[in-house]
Structure formats: C-alpha cells, structure tokens
Amino acid sequence: RVMLLERDTLTSGTTWHAAGLLTHLKGDPVVAELARRGYAYYEELSEATGHQIGFHRTGSLAVARSVDTATKALMAAQVGQYCGHRHEVLRDFADASQLHPFLSNAAEDFVLGVYTPEDGIVNPADCTMALAKRARQAGVVICEREPALGLTVSADGRKVVGVKTAS
Questions:
Q1: How far apart are CA 11 and CA 101, in angstroms?
Q2: Model's pTM, two decimal places?
Q3: How far apart are CA 128 and CA 4, in angstroms?
Q4: Secondary structure in 3-state letters for 81-105
Q5: Cβ neighbours of residue 86 under 8 Å, at least 6 residues apart?
Q6: What are phi and psi of 85, to 5 degrees?
Q7: How far apart are CA 30 and CA 33, in angstroms?
Q8: pLDDT digits over 87-108, tens only?
C-alpha cells in the first residue's frame, strides 16, 4: 500500500511558481533517458486521466556565451542524440535569432545555440492534479493537511518502517 502525505494541499507550496519545463538537453545518459520517459508519460497523461495538463510542444533554445558553456552544451547534445533526442546545433547568431526574435547579442558574445524542437511545457498545477488522479487510480492514498512529524526506524536503525503524523 502506498500513501502520500501532503503537509497542506496539493499545489499549495512551490508548484504554483514552477516553470513546468520538459527539456531533453541533459549531460548524463541516465538523466536524458529519464527525461525521454517523463516526456512520453506527460504526453499521454491527459488522455489517461481526462485532466488537461496544459501540455504544449514549444521547443527550447540553449545559448552559450562562452567556450566553456558551448563545450558543455555540445557534450549534452551528443549525449541526447545518443539517447534518441533531437538537438540542432546553431553556430550562427542569425539562425538562433530566427527561433527567438528577442534574443540579443549586443555584447557580440554568442558562441552557439542548441535548439531542441521536442521540448515543451505543462501547467504545473494541472499536471500535479492529473498525476494525483493517476496515482489514486493506481490505489495510492493521498492525505492532505497531514504533515510528517517523524520517522519510525527498524531496531537496527537501517530501515524506515513508519511515518509519524498527528493523526
């Protein structure tokens, strides 16, 4: 049995100001694979729950303004491509500014950009509610206004075996 304890109500904390970004440009293959799987999950979440999550495929543009940042972006793009993500390396500021008309290069420090057309966004609050609905469908019990006050551990102190709450 799985139980989720929420100290207040779902979306009452930091959710409301989360960006809701779904990005693929990661520097680690494991994280890149998690991003791919998460993105696929969010794509079907609305259909599975009947709850709209504000999912939009917007694409994203990472901009490097130093050689060090460019090197890291190129490495992340290579990792992503290895994992099946689409990344387009833009070496010309004009190409990047076509994607993002408000992008400035006043200091003439543009080194390169990495465009990821499959990136997107979700509405964080709507997404949270859809995830909660999906969890309930799977048998998870969600207890709101139920803060965790402490943990109960096994006699040897190596495992958490319970959570203390006010109720």
A1: 33
A2: 0.78
A3: 13
A4: HHCCCCCEEECCHHHHHHHCCCCCC
A5: 24, 116, 117, 118
A6: -85, 155
A7: 5
A8: 999 999 999 999 999 999 999 9
